[in-house]
Amino acid sequence: MSARRCDGILRRDLLRVGGLTALGLGLGDLFRLQRQAMGANGSVVKAKSCILIWLDGGPSHLETFDPKADVPSEVRGPFGTVKTKVPGIHLSELMEQTACHMQDVAIVRSMTSPLGEHNFGTHYLMTGYKPTPVLEYPTVGATFSHLRSAPGVQVLPANVAVPRFNVGGSKLSGNGFLSSAFRPFSVGGDPAKKDFEVKDLNFYKGLDLKRLERRKGYVGALNSLSEIPGVGFGEKSDPDLERAYRLLASDEAKAAFDLEQEPAEVRARYGPKTVGQSCLLARRLVERGVSFVTVNHRGWDTHEDLLTRLKNGYVGAKTPIGLIPSLDQALGALVTDLKETGMLDETLVMVMGEFGRTPKLNTRGGRDHWPRVFSVAMAGGGVAGGQVYGSSDRVGESPKDNPVTPSDLTATIYKLLGIDPATELQTNDGRPVRVAPPEAKVIEELIA
């Protein structure tokens, strides 16, 4: 299926225009916004959007992207390996579809962190900064949306989480010290369920636009009063109300969340589980101009019964639908779709969690938290695929070479997204903070 019409206009650009016309804007505005996404040297940034598949709980690197075939069984675990399209690179036997796309995928096998607690590890991986009690840093998704979105123009939220942004113990806001307008918009419903509904659309569906306009007018009046000395009403705007208004005012925006518009065979390709349908929804959203989508795939805290949870899903399952096969099917379908529609080059796909798992199985048949070494996978958006960067030692206990910190990874992601890692943001008290720490190094080998 071609993504470009004979007149040279991309299908996804037409979809974006459909959302813009709800606000009286057109192609000229779209192209102006695209030019704003160009780098300082005038070259077009490859990655215009990002889909982060977050494996909440900490995925085992040994059962996914860094299997160890020639080690004792208590280290190797219950699964074998599979060859990929790239000679010499093997993945877990449960990742056959991902193996078929290895030429487009880069794996970092030398990620390392000192933080083995869910909330701390999540903060470090999602922001690039180690957590501190005095400041919550914004996630990459919030920062990217803040720097790249056009407030008041984009109908769909710039930063979306599917189904919800309750990662790492649910203590991370997502926007940190940035405005709540850049907090991840949690879809709320499960895209895999027949009664799937978007939370805010369901909440506001009893309001017609006239009533919602009146409510906006009330907020505007309060904002005007707040400018009078001695009168204060808190924040100058209501991001949730503004978002609800934009969504309800645009049929195209509401249609972006309608998976029923997808052919049955496409939905089946992604699989019936939540992660698959969430990845399909993520593709629909970035196709329509959303900057950042987090697909929150929960359940990876496998302290026990690893075989069942990772492979089968439940005891006695005839068809494996566990965490890894579901992820593999979703990731394979997502890369296939993005490639066929010409979107892979401009869509960065990341797969990661907050840490890895112990190099030996415990007495309960599981693995415990292990941040010393773990893996991250990435594809599209200017990534140099078909490679493994760094390695772990023989038993997957520590980095063997080229250790990569979450700060380094974050700096690399920003570089792929066309943002200088030295770019500064402002805290509420006016303090400048870089989007990536000063010590962070961009891994140039991962960039095509």
Written description of the protein model:
With 448 residues, this protein is of the alpha/beta class. It has 15 helices and 16 strands. Strands 6-5-7-1-8-11-4-12 form an eight-stranded mixed sheet, sandwiched between helices. It has a two-stranded antiparallel sheet with strand order 2-3.
Write a concise synopsis of the structure shown.
This protein has helices at about 10-20, 25-35, 75, 95-100, 120-125, 140-150, 200-205, 210-225, 240-250, 250-255, 265-270, 275-285, 305-310, 325-340, 405-415; strands at about 50-55, 80-85, 90, 105-110, 160, 185, 290-295, 345-350, 355, 370, 375-380, 385-390, 390, 400, 425, 430-435. With about 450 residues, the chain is an alpha/beta fold. Helix 5 packs parallel to helix 15, helix 8 (about 210-225) packs antiparallel against helix 9 and helix 12 (about 275-285) runs parallel beside helix 14.
Key terms:
448 residues; alpha/beta; 8-stranded mixed β-sheet; two-stranded antiparallel ribbon; 15 helices; 16 strands; globular; disordered N terminus
Strand arrangement within the widest β-sheet reads 6-5-7-1-8-11-4-12
Q: What is the residue-mean pLDDT, rounded to a whole number?
A: 85
Number of helices: 15
Shape: globular
Distance between the termini: 26 Å
Class inferred from helices and paired strands: alpha/beta
What Rg is obtained from the alpha carbons, in whole angstroms? 22 Å
What share of residues are in beta strands?
Answer: 5-15%
Strand runs, count: 16
Largest sheet: 8 strands, mixed
Q: Unreliable runs, pLDDT <50, ≥5 residues?
A: 1-9, 14-44, 203-207, 230-235
The percent of residues in helical segments reads: 25-40%
